[in-house]
Amino acid sequence: MRKRSVADLTIGEKAVIQSFDDESLSLKLLEMGCLPGAEVQMSGKAPMGDPICLNVAGYRLAIRKSEAATIIID
C-alpha cells in the first residue's frame, strides 16, 4: 500500500505529519513548521493544482505539490 502524503489531501481535510521522504528537503520543511506530530490542513490549491496552501503551526504555508508529496501523513 502506498503511503499517503500531504499532496493527497483534499481541501478542508486534516491529517497528522508522520515523517518525510526526502531527507534534503526535510530540513527546509521542519524550519517552516512541518514537524512530525503536527496537524496539517489543506486550505486551498491554485487553479492548476500547484502550488497548494496548508494550515500548519498556526499559519498558512504555500508550497509546491512536489514538496508536499514528500510529507508523509497518517
Automatic annotation (TrEMBL):
Span of the signal peptide: none
Alphabetical keyword list: Iron
Residues covered by the Ferrous iron transporter FeoA-like domain: 4-74
InterPro entries tied to this protein: Fe-transptr_FeoA-like, FeoA, FeoA_core_dom, Transcriptional_repressor_C
An example Gene Ontology molecular-function term: transition metal ion binding
Keyword Iron: yes
Protein name: Ferrous iron transport protein A
